[in-house]
Amino acid sequence: MIEREILIHPSISGTLAIPEGEGTCPAVLLLAGSGPIDRDGNDRKGKYQTNLYKELAHFMTGLGFVTLRYDKRGTGKRDGDWMAAGLSNLADDAKTAMLFLCEHPNVDPEKVIVCGHSEGTILATILAETMNPAGCMFLSGGVDNLMEALHHQRQLAYKELLAQPGLKGWINRILKVDVKNEKQYVKLLEKMKQSDRDTIKIQLFFKQPAKWFREHDAYDTRCALKNVTCPVFALHGDKDPLLESHVLEELDGLVRGKSEYHIIHNMEHGLRVQTEPRSILSVKKNFKDILKRTLHEEGLEKIEAWLIAHFKTDHSLEE
Fold first, then answer.
1. Per-residue pLDDT for the chain (319 aa), expressed as one digit of tens each?
2. Hey, where are the domains in the chain?
3. Is the Cβ–Cβ distance between 30 and 53 less than 8 Å?
4. First to last CA, the chain
């Protein structure tokens, strides 16, 4: 494998990984999840070093695919304010990276796949609808838009808070934390939707990504999926509390191309092994231990099988 740091655009730094050998290869564009995480999947302060996208890139390049991953605005080697970027800005960056990959001399432009993780699955949906890639992959996401996913997360959090044992649960039920918190969320969302600014402040100090929320709220993923003609692959883990996997049952009735999905036992949002119970209140508590574990073997096997079946010719496999 040959790995190079490249400039996709004067303002966008990325990493291109190319399999050894001559000729062109199929390629995968990796689209990151939400928050200030860089091309490798790591946060700016070094607190959460997942290296998820770096590991996925190396795995896919090992299968014979060129891979491209890049820094989001305000992360890694890229300037800008990540919180001021809306969905439209993130989509523009993804489209720029897609065009770069399609035009690269080591890439077969007829075999470029978009692969999104978490929020990146929404960007992958946008590219699948508008740029006609060879394939589309949803890892820990898909079908729901961001607002629907956040709704699921809040409802699960309320359920766990109200079910807590002892005094904590009793206080939460007496104070009706679910009703109180939901009212606060609705009020905040409405404030962001009424604003025309990229960011707003609440309680004078706390910055919120208003443009990001507004544009996600307006984007209809299901409507977009009805225009997708390429093969679609989706992968969830049954220990992921940030998703409702039953929505993947809708895929076949939405997309016009072939689709398949898999729900992996004991896999969490970051595609690693998790044996602990599924709990949204325990995500941060379990995070450090989970980061020490490998990517889920069965999840990688499903990814490999789909990529090879759809995009590797007999000749390329022999090489």
1. 999 999 998 889 999 999 998 789 999 999 999 999 999 999 877 777 899 999 999 999 999 999 999 999 999 999 999 999 999 999 999 999 999 999 999 999 999 999 999 999 999 999 999 999 999 999 999 999 999 999 999 999 999 999 999 999 999 999 999 999 999 999 999 999 999 999 999 877 889 999 999 999 999 999 999 999 999 999 999 999 999 999 999 999 999 999 999 999 999 999 999 999 999 999 999 998 999 999 999 999 999 999 999 998 644 443 4
2. 2-145+220-318, 150-211
3. yes
4. 14
Cβ count within 10 A of residue 291:
14
Contact 120, 143 (CB under 8 A): no
Strands (DSSP E) found in 24-104: 25-31, 66-70
Coil, strand or helix at 19: coil
- For residue 117, count other CB atoms closer than 10 A to its CB: 27
Q: Cα–Cα–Cα angle for 261, 146, 61, nearest 5°?
A: 50
- CA-angle at 305, arms to 301 and 307, nearest 5°: 115
Considering the domain 2-145+220-318 in this protein, what is its CATH number? 3.40.50.1820
Report d(CA 57, CA 53) in Å as an integer: 6
Q: Which two tokens stand for residue 74?
A: 């305000």
User: Nearest Cα to 91, choosing from 112, 68, 120?
Assistant: 120
Tokens of 125: 């949906």
Contact call for residues 57 and 89 (beta carbons, < 8 A): no
